[in-house]
Amino acid sequence: MEVLKVSAKSRSTAVAGAIAGVVREVRRAEVQAIGAGAVNQAVKAVAIARGYLAEDGINAICIPSFTEVSIGEQERTALKLVVEPR
Amino acid sequence: MEVLKVSAKSRSTAVAGAIAGVVREVRRAEVQAIGAGAVNQAVKAVAIARGYLAEDGINAICIPSFTEVSIGEQERTALKLVVEPR
User: Which letter does DSSP use for residue A35 in this model?
Assistant: First the structure.
């Protein structure tokens, strides 16, 4: 599955649109963020996407977890937010 | 309902314990965070609390939204994370 990678510079409304599109299409979006600024943008995007999806009658929820990702030769801990209809 | 207020300096494991305790007792915890550092600690706490609650057979989910809070005379936008059994 495609993973939506969010950075501290990502626009939360743009990410929200992407999340809503993926949830509408395949019923599950996976968002990945590393660092406080990125996590903040990601959570704001999920809150906005919930509004978009509510218009389609979808009550979206979010499941946060930790995941290890490799960036070059470094292992970093990312936050993964799975967004799905409740 | 009691609101768990998280700051950038909150220990995510301590907040996670509080979230798990409230969800076990009243089936719903409300977490509030203002600013990227606080939101990051709050989401990490929810991810950790999910692990604690899973041990009790509770599959906890998270519902993020925006909320306006007054701090002194200032209006600030906070992120609210509601944690509930799915």
Answer: S
User: In b/e form, how buried is each residue of B64-85, taking b as 16+ CB within 10 angstroms?
Assistant: beeeeeeeeeeeeebbbbbbbe
Cα A15 to chain center, whole Å? 7
Disruptive mutation site among A63, A76, A77 for chain B (greatest number of B CBs within 10 Å): A63
**For the packed helices B36-54 and A36-54, what is the interaxial angle rounded to 10 degrees?**
70
Instruction: Scan for tokens 């009790």, then name that residue.
Output: B56
Any alpha helices (H) in B1-86, and if so which ranges? Answer: 12-26, 36-54
Q: What is the ipTM metric for this complex?
A: 0.94
Is the Cβ pair B40, A44 closer than 8 Å? Answer: no
Assign B28 to helix, strand or coil. Answer: coil
Tell me how far apart the alpha carbons of residues B27 and B83 are, in angstroms, rounded to a whole number: 8
pLDDT along chain B (86 residues), means of 10: 92 97 97 98 98 96 96 93 97
Contact A67, A17 (CB under 8 A): no
Q: Which residue has the tokens 């950075």?
A: A7
Two structure tokens written together for B25: 């007792």
How high does pLDDT run on average in chain B? 96
What's the whole-model pTM score?
A: 0.95
What is the nearest CA distance from B73 to chain A, expressed in angstroms? Answer: 24
